[in-house]
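Q: Sequence in, structure out?
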Amino acid sequence: MGNQVKKILFVVTGLGYGGAEMQVWRLSRELTARRWGVQVVSMIPPGALLQRFLDDGIPVHDLGMVRGVPSPTAVLKLARIVRRVSPDVVHSHMFHANLLSRAAKSFFLRTPLVNSGHSTNEGGNWRYCAYRYTDILCDRFHTVSNVALDGYVRGRFVSSRKLFYLPNGVPVEQASLAAEEKERLRARLGLEEDFAFLSVGRLEVPKNHRGLLKAFAGVAERCSARLLIVGEGGQAKELEEYCSELGLSDRVHFLGKRHDVQALMRAVDAFVISSTWEGLPNVLLEAAIAGLPVVSTSVGDIPFIIQDGRWGLLVSPGDSDALARAMREMTDLLPSERAQIGKNLRATVIEQFDIRKIIDHWERVYEELLY
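A: Exactly. Output:
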């Protein structure tokens, strides 16, 4: 395409603080820095991440859909945006955006369409069938998880010639937190000298915070520990009530939405993931960059990264007793042992998930579709 500016249009369900949405923001800003013309379409009114896109000078279009309510007019709205923007590539993320972009594909047949799946569980067999029967409408299908890729291949939901794996990427050059700043932050959080675990994620069923609270009860009864939970969601009230039932209200801190997660990661002692399913969670990569040792359920591609006992501790999903034992084991390690685990994990993530390397791959994918 010579020196002509290449243009890409991302299509997403929404712009809340989710892992997929954060990845779209990172792709957008990195591609913008590489002189791509980037614009974004949000199916529902954009959420908390909207300002980040606007601050980076990235236009965002709103289809005005209502969550959970199909809208045939949204297909036409998307088609009109594609025609007006005239992107070289349309790249959608997550099931609903993937299906919507396929439905609109007949209006932009000559524009390559890339779909991205971000989970090992799309939410029901009918969704996989929808992928299978509309497969002809996308040009490439991407997944962030090797486990998910295997599932798509076995189920024949996506043509194998279109399917490829490319992990999420994270910035690997992040600011450190000075010792005095760390102590001030710990004091503001009321952590004192306690061992502090951090969990970050939507307060929804797949993240299994209820199981995490049950596990933490088994930790708190044996040592002086605290649990920080960052995130919002439909289970917020239920989880706070369950926390009170367990007698943990003074040991568990529900912090809601935070804009200083990287600082929090540098102020705690370990990171914990209790999900019943995942693809490749961004928060795991971010915790690794912060040098945190990790306790996690063995779901999605997490075992490929953690390698139980080497770079962290893994347990079966849904097993609160095993999670409690692993968390207690983490508290029993010497600070130097935890630091070494975190250091090793950080080196692994820098090698494999540097956002700059991931963008190199994405540019090759896009350009292969254009020539």
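The mean pLDDT is 93.
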